[in-house]
Amino acid sequence: MTQPSAQTHQGSAPYEGLRLNGLTKRFGRFTAVDGVDLHIRRGEFLTLLGPSGSGKTTLLMMIAGFQDISAGDIALDGHSITTVPAEKRNFGMVFQGYALFPHMSVRDNIAYPLSVRKRPHAEITARVDEMLELVQLTKFDTRLPGQLSGGQQQRVALARALCFAPPVLLLDEPLGALDKKLRIEVQAQLKAIHQRVGTTFIYVTHDQEEALSMSDRVVIMQNGRIEQLGTPQELYQRPATQFAASFLGKSNFLHCSDGLYALRPEKIDICPATQTAGAPLGPHRTTAVVHSVTYFGSILSYTVALPDGTTLQVDVDAWRGGPTLDRGAQVTLDWPDEAAVKLAPDTP
Amino acid sequence: MAHTPAIPLQARNMWRYLPRGGWLLVAPLMVLVLGLFLGPLTNIMVISVTDPKPGLGNYAALFQSDALGGILWTTLRVCVLTTAISVTLGYCIAHAMIHALARERNWMLSLLLVSFWISVLVRTFSWLMLLGRNGLVNNGLEAIGLITQPIEFMRNELGVLIGMVHYMVPYAVLPLLASMQTIDARVLAASRNLGASPAQTFWRVYLPLTRPGLVAAALLVFILSLGFYVTPAILGGGKVLMVAEYISVQILVTLRWGTAAMLAVLMLGGVLGLLFVMSRFMKLSTVFGGTKP
């Protein structure tokens, strides 16, 4: 793939990716982003995940150059870009709601970043054709954005942001406006396009499924800080804090003498008490009563009450998990040592 | 199924075009509008071809009389200049208002609306005080030594233009303001993000998106300017004769109603023609209705 505007990056020292050092944004007394240190590797798909108000969008806007920085530094390839204005950063961006130019055709929208850079006409045409093919919109090139469906508009926005081969692509909740079924389809397309173009993707979302299914690494944000950083597997299997465990996936929390533990619902074994009567009690083996049963198609979710009154959630494969237990049934629970993960106390 | 006879079918279809019950409710209003608005208008058209004698003599005079041609040319020139200046200034004001803080914007909007409440006569006479040979502007400039001779602001087109632009700017601001308010700030951010300089963003995104507002403002100002009477009469001091003033003279002084009616019909035709030409290029509903294109 030709990369018309990437020469500036190829000439410099080995690509270090994007480095954020102590990035801070204050609005009056409120600190939206609080000293974020982050190294985003070249070509990776990094997701900023967090609830609204966690500072993820503000952080993205600072990287894009739309939000000025209260303290800290942003560096690309080892060169600080903190003072570079948004239009000179050469970062592509897919906005929430897409922000397509309503008065321009699909082709003109995609060509815009090249035509404002005054590229030769032939090069623009060739590159736009290539982008149209990448997002499978070749037949729609003369349409206006208003004549496209939400998913098609999303693809135009993606093609427009990738057209000038930016070193970094920023995506601000790009799937928020799509319905659930379409969203899953577009997730797969987005992931495939990422692998094809090899650009660094920084993706902001509050949807944990999107974060898990697409990202190389995920940053969980809370109160303007990084709560935890890791691959989707690391974050799911070894959450570091109570917030990380509850925000990414479901989790039970066990208060033990030496601290708080997270225990994922599907890691607990459950069987009727009659079947295990007489067997020796293991370290975690405990009896409980089924409080409620919810059927989700692929899984059965039980809420069970322990003798001391605490309730746990237990998920069972609905197909392989044996007969459904009734409400009020006496059950035995067990889980291996490594299933429970010790959590660090939450940062205040 | 039996064939329905042709004639009864047509008769039944005719009922579709006849007013139903609901129409009766607006009938009195229709009668009023037709009687009080279209009636006199038709009368004027009739006068333009019957007074002083039947025929197109009044219209032929357009091509024979230099005076009439001159008046039309002056009117057109003043109106085009007024429109261009008012819309440009209005665009700047609307742009400043949109990007001001909410509190400041409300102040600016109040000031704009206040200017609608001041009579055109009062405003024109104020300019008379300011721009006269011994007016505030000339005296002031002389006092600080910038000029030695008073500038002739009045009894010429400059004065008429100043007065008319001053009156028309608020009319230009309102449609522009409405049109700028609909622009999504993210679209402008996207333009910047894609590498466009502020000037490129303005010319390629902002200006095209405000085009319906620009057309609406220009049409509004141009049509209002065509019929402007008080300001050209006072600030022009009889030297800048525009159509509206000329019509009034024909009716009240020289009693040539035929010529007056002909000019009125011409202006009406001009405005309708302008709207028609505009409608070929864009949906007028986007200009006047504020609906999205």
Q: Care to describe what's here?
A:
The complex is a heterodimer of chains A (348) and B (293). Chain A has two domains: 8-91 and 166-243, P-loop containing nucleotide triphosphate hydrolases (Rossmann fold), CATH 3.40.50.300; 251-342, Nucleic acid-binding proteins (OB fold (Dihydrolipoamide Acetyltransferase, E2P)), CATH 2.40.50. Chain A is 26% helix and 30% strand. Chain A has ten helices and 18 strands. In chain A, the strands form four sheets. Chain A has a six-stranded mixed beta sheet with strand order 6-7-8-3-9-10, sandwiched between helices. The longest helix of chain A is centred in the middle third of the chain and has 18 residues, at 180-197. The model of chain A is unreliable at 1-14 (pLDDT under 50). Chain B has 293 residues and is mainly alpha-helical. Chain B has one domain (62-287): Orthogonal Bundle (MetI-like fold). Chain B has 15 helices and no strands. The model of chain B has no long low-confidence stretch (mean pLDDT 86). At the A-B interface, loops of A face helix 9 and helix 10 of B.
